[in-house]
Structures are given as structure tokens and as C-alpha cells.
Amino acid sequence: MNPSFEVLMKDSYITQDYMHIPEYFYEHLPESHSTAVLHYDGEPWFMKINMGKRRWFKDGWKYFVMNNNIKRGWLINFELVEITEFCVIFQLHVTGRGTLQDPVEIN
User: Where are the domains of the chain?
Assistant: First the structure.
């Protein structure tokens, strides 16, 4: 089974230019890689990963969210499927869809 993490989308993940990766997942990310490919709905989405003390998706995150009409309350699973010489590849699974009344917290 591939390592993964889930994020319940909250307003800030929709409106900001980045999305934090949970600290417990850092051990799965090689420090030499700063590019990620998120596969979602049959399309690859390229973005940068900040590889400092805290890690997050950036430089492409907001474009991904806007172009896929990602909403507050959606539960998204980020499955790490491959680490290549140049990038880290994730498969995204929307495992649930919330409503505006749903609580929104990162897992």
C-alpha cells in the first residue's frame, strides 16, 4: 500500500496559493525533489513543493484548485505513487464531498 495523507478542504486551502503537507508525511518526501505531479481526473497537474522546515504545494496549487472547481469540505486523498529522478507523483482521490455546513479541518 502506498503512503498517503488526507486533507479536508477548508477555505484557506481554496483561496491561498499553497497547501501544507502534514508533518507526519515528510519522511516519504525526498529532500532532493521540489517538483510534484498531482494526477486528478485523468490530468497531470505540475507544481512545486517547498522543501524547507515546513513543506507545502505551491506554484500551481491555486491553478489546480480553480481549474478543478475544488470546494470547501471536499475530502482529498493524496496517494504517493512514484518518486522519479525529477519529481514526486501523487494520485488524488476525492473520497467525499462536503457541504458549506461541514467542519473543515486538516487531518
Answer: 4-97
**Helix spans in 1-107 (H):** 11-15, 61-67
d(CA 21, CA 5): 8
Helix then strand count (H, E) for the chain reads 2, 7
Using the structure block, give the residue that is written with the C-alpha cell 521540489. Answer: 34
**88, 104, 106: which is closest to 28 by C-alpha?**
88
Letter for the amino acid at 74? W
Q: Can you read off the three cell numbers belonging to residue 76?
A: 482529498
Label the pairing between strands 88-96 and 75-83. Answer: antiparallel
| pLDDT greater at residue 4 or residue 31 | 4
* Between 70 and 79, the higher pLDDT residue: 79
69, 72, 78 from 88: Cα distances, Å: 23, 25, 11
Q: What is the CATH number of domain 4-97?
A: 2.40.330.10
Name the pTM for this structure. 0.85
